[in-house]
User: Fold this.
Amino acid sequence: MNFAIINGKLVNRSEAKVDIEDRGYQFGDGVYEVIRVYNGKMFTVKEHLERFVKSADSIGITLPYTIDECTALLEELVTKNKLVEGTIYMQITRGTSPRNHVFPARDVVPTLVAYTKEVARPVESFTHGVKTIFIEDIRWLRCDIKSLNLLGNLLAKQKAAEQGCFEAIQHRGDQVTEGSSSNVFIVKKGTVITHESNHLILKGITKEVILQLCAQNNIPVEERTFTLDELVAADEVFLSSTTAEVMPIVEMNGDKVKEGLPGPITRKLQTLFTLEIEKQCGRLK
Ligand code: PMP
Assistant:
């Protein structure tokens, strides 16, 4: 049997249902996280749960559990579902109450849901890299909140998919922000450059791990906005996310990035990132 968590209880996945007046369903009034599991162990779980609490706090939802309680619940879910390699999806909404834009009374209990999915590491793409398009960033101005409202991201990702691409790199005017579900990095003359973590992007957990790895390995970093011209002129380009890890970008808008192969710093960061996974979760096959 496969299990899900609804409000602290493990239930049969096929019986896990929420009300049609759940505010997540009607308004996208909630926040979420995706946590990677390798070898049955959660990777950077503390960082993900801290971001979850922060996202929830910023829209006035209080998590009814401590981070330790949440971790224990998720561990139980992974064990019960015998998940070896995959993801945990979790979301919290403002709860169920008669439809009204105004927040419901304080006694309405938030709905917390979590379930797991088996997902293999995209090793083919790690080796060969992926293709991307560019797209104007039409999202709101609080992209630092991991909100359930993902329409802007979905429209961008769909456009990419329709053109046979893995990701859409978004930009506001000539300033590059991030992918539809990833952070974007360029490498120029040995320096790794990525958008600073402000309200225009999500502060990726993978991004933070990569920045730590750069610091530990004397790879220079600049956290700042960069332009489309810089992106096009970059020596290497890669993206990062919980499931895509360190993913080389080898084509943008139909043009190859350099020779169309993953670059040396991207490769080095892939190796360092894999070692970091193994440090936390044990040896990968
Ligand atoms: N930006 C956006 C818009 C995302 O959806 C994601 C994926 N969660 C990321 C960045 C990367 O974040 P993380 O490394 O925490 O998965």
